[in-house]
Amino acid sequence: MAEIIPRWEWRTFGRGVAIAEPHVAALTSTGVQESDETYLLAGTRNTAKVRAGLIDIKVLVEVDPDGLEQWRPAMKAEFPLSAAEVATAFATLGLPAPTLARETYTLDELVADLAGPGSALRPVAVHKRRVRYVIGGCTAEVSDVTADGRPTRTVAIESTDAAAVVAAVRSVGLGDFRNTSYGEGLAALLAGVPPRYAVIDVGTNSVKFHVGELAPDGTWRRVRDRAELTRLGEGLVAGGGISAAAAERTAAAIEGMAGEARADRVLAIAAVGTAGLRIATNRDAVLEAIRRRSGVRVDVISGDEESRLAFLAARAGVGLAAGSVAVFDTGGGSTQLTFGHDDIVDERFSVDVGAVRFTERFGLGGPVEPPVLAAALEAIAAELARLDGRPSVDALVGMGGAVTNITAVRHGMATYDPDVVQGTVLTRAEIDRQIDLYRRLSAEDRRAIPGLQPKRADVILAGACIVRTVMGKLGCEALTVSDRGLRHGLLAERFGD
Questions:
Q1: How do the domains of the chain map onto residue ranges?
Q2: How far apart are CA 132 and CA 118, in angstroms?
């Protein structure tokens, strides 16, 4: 008998099908099949399927670093099942042995006696219409599914070649989507769980993480939103590489965030990298280390793309009236600026002006004398010369870790509240007050300031100097704070309706 080579399987439900369809539409179907089946959900990873009088149970064998799954057929038997076969089925599904009152069981008897309310086993009537394709040498299908009267759609891709499955998934635009097994997808559908998606923004100074839940009306509910300072760009200069310690801190943070996202049952995790990863000579090695550790692929985006996504988030988040607006997002390694009017982007660009580099260059992590501060402000102004001579704008919106920390200090927040931060107006006078405060204190003393994130204490002075310089260059006496940044724009664009 020929050896059976296990296949690597990948599947997603809902939104992913709509994203993949334009790619699949150009393909020729290799067949269409309809079937009526009964799934027996056990609340475990293993699931039983009954079709044409035959019970088929597969068990999960392996999950690879890309989240692909290998399943092994563990039991196939024809109804009616003997009591011994029923006991075997429960054991294979990872359930306690049932009390059996019959010598044999039809499917109806098994459901009546051992499944349903109060039981660990839940029967689900499923109708499928599967349209099959070949994508990148892999078997694929797009299916319309009705489970206990609830409709959904699913797309699946499988092959014995794991790399081919990954490539095929990415080729139809689903590289961000995580593998969702049939049992998991059906359980979420029947529970009426709104779809959730995660985004990770890998910055030079911090990694930002957001999980959003999409409501039927198209609005988003925040499930998680936090940042972890990992200092990916610590000591990084143009033409240099990311240190092993910085890469390790960042990979560990992303691994933890990915674990939280999967626990939240997200359908997809989109991750992007910004300035630090753009300039690092060892970028590819760092990205591969992150992927292997967390299962997350980080796409490095351009400064222009970073600016555009931040602009989308800012306009939607602070409810700006019609008129001209400038949005800036300053981070550890760069500052993105976007100029537009109404909902139209007129110009966007990125400059390598970030808090980490200027902190290291001028020693701004502790107390500094006025001449040193003046020199730092002069150097920042010189690198932001592209802003000189621009016409004034109707509104200026600031975002990023420096801006939100300055805002938290302004409010004296013991616990960060994004809803209070969002929409706060910061004046030049407040920025000047905080610059003078930080320049007099050591990093340790800064950590005692209410509202200031302790890990940001050494870079906050440089960040405040960048904010103040942008305001001065654009002739703005005040700015409106947006807690909604790149990650929110990415969430809306990738996964919104």
A1: 8-190, 196-300, 318-485
A2: 38
